[in-house]
């Protein structure tokens, strides 16, 4: 029953789309985003039971709809790239962000400075100076008073 309902739903979506580029004409709407988010995985994923996927592939306008959105909004992930060969993982990371290590170090340093600043400002950590002045003499005076008693 579930597969029958899903097949019927796909067929109705195909009929509603017809030969249009999007469900409501030439520009996408929120319905297009919703429908695409359900159809693309069904179309592209490897499934253990491919009955529903085969039915979707038989509805050419829905397949073209998904391919069109993939190439328009996800050109890097839209499928085949002519002339693009698989690259090593290290090459991908290096091209993706050439300053990745520097940015990581700066993030750690910024986090450390923020934590220390919070600790000082909230009073969790305080710095007491030793030196000349009434604050430096006070503990000594207290010791002298204790000795006299």
From TrEMBL:
The keyword Disulfide bond does not apply. The chain crosses the membrane at residues 105-127. It holds the Pfam family GST_C_6. It comes from the Eukaryota. Residues 6-69 form the Metaxin glutathione S-transferase domain. One of its GO terms (cellular component) is SAM complex. GO terms for biological process: mitochondrion organization. Keywords: Membrane, Transmembrane, Transmembrane helix. InterPro entries: Glutathione-S-Trfase_C_sf (IPR036282), Metaxin_GST (IPR033468), Mito_Protein_Transport_Metaxin (IPR050931). Signal peptide: none annotated. The keyword Nucleus does not apply. This is MTX1 protein.
